[in-house]
Amino acid sequence: MSDKVLHVGDADFDSAVLQSSEPVLVDFWAEWCGPCKMISPVLDELADAYDGKLKIAKVNVDENRATAIKYHVRSIPMLLLFKDGQIQATQIGAVGKGQLSQMIDKALV
Questions:
Q1: Which cysteines are joined by disulfide bonds (predicted)?
Q2: In this predicted structure, what is the pLDDT of residue 1?
Q3: N or C: the chain end with fewer CB closer than 10 Å?
Q4: What tens digit of pLDDT does each residue of 34-79 get?
Q5: Residue 102: CATH number of its domain
Q6: HEC secondary structure over the chain
Q7: Is the Cβ–Cβ distance between 17 and 8 less than 8 Å?
Q8: Cα-atom radius of gyration of the chain, to the nearest Å?
Q9: What is the C-alpha separation between 98 and 43, in angstroms, rounded?
């Protein structure tokens, strides 16, 4: 697991994600979710590749229900890309590194 991936909860979501000076890709996940585990190594790679340009944060939906409810998380993994506190892109389900990179690159321009 990359040390660049932040673990964020209900208490620090606003400061870590919404008030971030960098765009933040948030992964809503759970321990029991197979597809969530599949994309975890991809997120670690992306955290290294985009270091200094983008943060990657994980929110455990079982432990942080208020944030999951606020963003209407109904199926996981669900990835939301925030820039300046606003959602720029959404991806539901496990996808490959290429597709996530494209989503990130569009938001970084």
A1: 33-36
A2: 57
A3: C
A4: 999 999 999 999 999 999 999 999 999 999 999 999 999 999 999 9
A5: 3.40.30.10
A6: CCCCEEECCCCCHHHHHHCCCCCEEEEEECCCCHHHHHHHHHHHHHHHHCCCCCEEEEEECCCCHHHHHHCCCCCCCEEEEEECCEEEEEEECCCCHHHHHHHHHHHHC
A7: yes
A8: 12
A9: 11
The residue type of 48 is D
pLDDT of the residue at 2 = 62
pTM more than 0.90: yes
Q: Which of 5, 17, 26, 33 is catalytic?
A: 33
* Residue numbers of the domain that contains 60: 3-106
Q: Is 33 a catalytic residue?
A: yes
Q: How many domains does the chain have?
A: 1
